[in-house]
Amino acid sequence: MPKDTADAVPAVKAVGDWELEVNGNPYGPDSDTQWFDQNSEIVSGSEVPVIYYHSLGEDGRHLVERPILIGKATRPEKRADGVWWRVMLDKTKQEAALVWEAAKQGVAVASSGAIDYLSRLDINGTFIPYRKDKPGRIAIWHMGELSLWDRPGHRSQAHLHAIAIPALKAAYEDAGLSIPQMYESLSENDEQESRKAAKIAKMNIRKRSRKILKEAKKLLQE
User: Fold this and answer.
1) 189-216: per-residue pLDDT in tens?
2) Coil, strand or helix: which one is 26?
3) pLDDT tens for each residue of 54-103
4) DSSP state string for 128-191
5) Distances from the Cα of 85 to the Cαs of 11, 71, 77, 88, 146, in angstroms?
6) 218 and 115 co-located in one domain
7) Which domain holds residue 158?
């Protein structure tokens, strides 16, 4: 969800030994003029991977090579201010320790990421495929991941809120979770499309190379 929750009532609360309560889907408008409300449908598997800072680097723009899994989120619960998740952090991850310390100080940041083409915006009563640049109520949010991070203000709110299937699949595998069947089939299709696109690109490069060589030989003959 494109909403930085660090400036409001702490959305990440330490409740046990490396255990957190996280308002991953807060109600009300955000910086993108999109919002969850009590009627928003949050769709997910029984467990959702918790990723450090949406897999983004320090600049908040470029993805790191591999998603950094710092825990698992379970037991979504609707409350007056949003949908809260119970998160167990991975004690072996340095980034999880950073989030844990920030949570104890009440300054950890939470944001959820969805699969955009499975999610829907409600625009004046009409459902349309999710678009980050389109204002509206979030009607259906297919939860792909829950991100947490520390140092609010230093790291700006992530702009990547829709999760690419291959990255999502890697996140589930790293977390030891079974990716929901709908995502699995989509990831296979996506990978097939990627291979097809790569094959076409290689063919185009070869054609272009042959054309250049042909033109070069023609010039030499002249």
Assistant:
1) 555 544 554 455 456 556 655 665 666 6
2) strand
3) 888 877 777 788 889 999 999 999 999 999 999 999 999 999 999 999 99
4) EE--TTS-EEEEEEEEEEEEEES-BTTBPPPS--B--HHHHHHHHHHTT-PPPHHHHHHHHHHH
5) 10, 12, 6, 10, 9
6) no
7) 5-177
- Name the nearest CA neighbour of 63 among 164, 183, 154: 164
Structure tokens at 209: 């190379």
Same domain, 217 and 171: no
- Please tell me the pTM assigned to this model: 0.71
Q: Which residue carries 């030891």 as its tokens? A: 176
* Element spanning 195, H or E: helix 181-221
Q: Residue 155 and residue 59: Cα distance in Å, rounded?
A: 8
Nearest to 17 by CA among 100, 125, 118: 100
Between helices 181-221 and 165-174, what is the axis angle to 10°?
Answer: 130
CA distances in angstroms from 46 to 42, 74, 102, listed in the order given: 12, 6, 26
User: Does 135 share its domain with 194?
Assistant: no
User: Phi and psi for 137 in degrees, rounded to 5?
Assistant: -80, 135
β-pairing, 34-36 vs 28-29, is antiparallel
**11, 106: one domain:** yes
For residues 160 and 158, give the distance between their C-alpha atoms in angstroms, rounded to a whole number.
6
The domain total for the chain is 2
